[in-house]
Known about the structure:
Blueprint: E1 4-7, H1 11-16, H2 18-26, E2 31-36, H3 39-45, H4 48-60, E3 64-70, H5 83-88
Amino acid sequence: MERHLGVLxxxxxxxxxxxxxKQLAAFGVDGIEMIAYNSDDLYGYYxxxxxxxxxxxxxxxxxxxxxxxxxxxxxxxxxDPDDTERQKSL
Length: 90
């Protein structure tokens, strides 16, 4: 049976994620969901550097990212008629 965990990208969670992730892996949880709740999460939290750190951490526990959840309001600007606003959401 596959077991997955969803994690909101809140800075305190990312600092505390190592120990719980290791414990969850020990219990057989093999996947973790990464979530972008809003555009700040998408662009401010999920930087290239942080994504590399998260990948290394998740790989080290033999886990994988089972899903990347992108809430619609994180990219609501895609519907904006203004080109500049649309580009911010890409």
